[in-house]
Amino acid sequence: MRVKRKDIAQSVADRLFAAETALDLAAARIAELNAALPLARLDARLSATIGQDAVTSSAAAMVLVARTREEIVATHANLKRASDDMGLREVSYGDLFKAGVTQQRTPEPHLRAV
User: Fold this and answer.
1) I need a labelling partner for 70 at 20 to 30 A (CA). Which of 11, 31, 63, 78 fits?
2) For residues 13 and 92, is the Cβ–Cβ distance under 8 A?
3) Does residue 109 carry a pLDDT above 60?
4) At what angle do helices 52-85 and 2-44 cross, to 10 degrees?
């Protein structure tokens, strides 16, 4: 039963990581768009009033992605608690650095005179 729960948890974790990646990519692409819009206006020598609605809606989209990302981060924490509650506390589903988790370090060799 534990193996089945672990497999199911891994499947959910894979989907969570995919969602997190998609949101980060969306945020990056919207940020690129937000940077490009005023530069395009300047390059085209257009009035600031032209395209202002596009600048506003693109900035609003960035805020929405940031809020959505915050909710997915909360989902991640909630799923970690659920995993712990299922008896899978010691299982890690990804290879990313995680905040608040003690990372094991290999001792650095000491320098010595030759």
Assistant:
1) 11
2) no
3) no
4) 170
